[in-house]
Amino acid sequence: MRVYSPPCGCGDALKRPSNSGYATARILNIRGVMVRRDQMVCLEDQYISHVNAKFPGSVHDAYILRNSSIPCVMGQLQRHCVWLLGDSGYPNLSWLLTPLRNPRTRAEERYNEAHGRTRRVIERTFGLLKARFRCRHMTGGSLFYSPKKVCQIIVTCCMLHNLALRRQVPFLQEDGPDGGVVAAVEPVDSEDEPVDSEDEEAEEEDMNNRDSVIQQYFQ
What we know:
Layout: E1 2-4, E2 8-13, H1 22-27, E3 35-42, E4 48-56, H2 61-66, H3 70-77, E5 82-85, E6 96-97, H4 106-132, H5 147-166, H6 200-217
Parallel strand pairs: 1-5, 5-6
Antiparallel strand pairs: 2-3, 3-4
GO molecular function, one term: hydrolase activity
Cofactor: a divalent metal cation
Family: Belongs to the HARBI1 family.
């Protein structure tokens, strides 16, 4: 069994577009902040294997996932017992395991505990990425560029992050502007409501797949 850390979404604050109206509304997240929505997948060593930063802040994480290359890739990898982990904002799929909302058995509790421990890898990755590149951290303010430019910056930061890991570049923590140290670990929770599948038969099959994982690995 091999598990990749979850497709996880976060946002990067950016400047207000020159044109108002529809375009501006699409960039606003549920908190009314203009952001660019990122979706990332990382491996156990915090290496970022996928990044999608082309969607505005109003878009649901599940929509970004559905319109990315991940479903096609994971559909092929699933035969090798490979899964992605996703938070409760994502639908549970045959290749995407989400936490149980109400675990009833000790096996289900162990599954949720293991899910949470593994998910911390993406949280640490986000924290390290934002600490290395202060423009992505709240202490660095907003990215005062066009949405297209912000997308390019996000992808470039991920590429440099992977290069730094590959070449074992040490991470040097620096004092923040308020005298504190920028944390390398930040909790990342989806702001989106859970998505239910429109195909009840497929949804039941996906739930059965998660149950079989729990029975096989967590009993």
